[in-house]
Amino acid sequence: MGLFWGLIIGGLAGWISGNLMKGRGFGLLGNIVVGLVGGFLGGLLFRLLGLAATGLLGSLIMSVIGAVLLIYVVGKIRRR
Fold first, then answer.
1. How far apart are CA 55 and CA 63, in angstroms?
2. Lowest CB count within 10 Å: 8, 18, 30, 51, which one?
3. 35 and 67 in contact (C-beta within 8 Å)?
4. CA-to-CA distance for 16 and 2, rounded, in angstroms?
5. Which residues cross the membrane (predicted)?
């Protein structure tokens, strides 16, 4: 079940962050990848700041923050 919820949260986080940063999503697979990597980055960021995200909503918020950060950094690198 953990993998299932991870994919669902990753897809939602990728879709939300895609809409926030670019105005559109990245497709189903792209949203899942962006959301999963964003969840990893968000987890690292939250731990560095001494914060904790609990439950599905906390995981979604953490993943969205990480995915937005990921999209921002990739956008800055691509513009060079």
1. 12
2. 51
3. yes
4. 21
5. 26-46, 52-74
User: What residues does each domain of the chain span?
Assistant: 2-78
Q: What is the pLDDT of residue 52?
A: 87
Q: Whose CA is closest to 32, among 60, 17, 12, 55?
A: 12
- The answer to whether the predicted template modeling score (pTM) of the entire model surpasses 0.85 is yes
58: confidence class by pLDDT, cuts 50, 70, 90: very high
% the chain with pLDDT above 90:
45
